[in-house]
Amino acid sequence: MKFAVLAGAFGRMESTSKRTELTAFLVDLLRETPPESVATITYLIQGKLRPDFEGVELGVAEKLAARAIAKSAGVPASAVADRFKSGGDLGDAAAGVLDSRAQTTFAAEEITVDRVYETLLRIARASGARSQEMKARYISSLLNDATPDEARYIVKLLLGTMRLGVAENTMLDALAISFAGGKEARPELERAYNVSSDLGRVASAAAAGGAEAARGFEIRMYSPVRPMLAERVRDPSGAEPRLGAEFAAEFKLDGERVQIHAGGERVAIFSRRLEDVASYYPDIIEMVPPRIGGREAILEAEAVAVNEETGAFLPFQELMHRRRKHGVAGAVTKYPVSVNLFDVLYVDGRSLLCEPYSARREILEGMVDADQRVRCVQAARTGGAGLDDLMEDAFNAGAEGLMLKKLDSTYQAGSRGSNWLKLKREYRDDLADSLDLVVVGAFFGRGRRTGMYGTLLLATNDAPTGTLTSVCKVGTGFTDADLDSLYQMLSPDARARRDRRVVSGMEADVWFDPSLVIEVAASEVTLSPTHKAGMDAVRKGYGFALRFPKFTGRIRDDKSPEQASTNEELEALYAGQNKAARA
Ligand code: AMP
Question: Which of the listed residues 231, 232, 257, 344 should we mutate to test ligand 1's pocket, taking the one with most ligand atoms within 8 A of CB?
Answer without folding.
Answer: 257
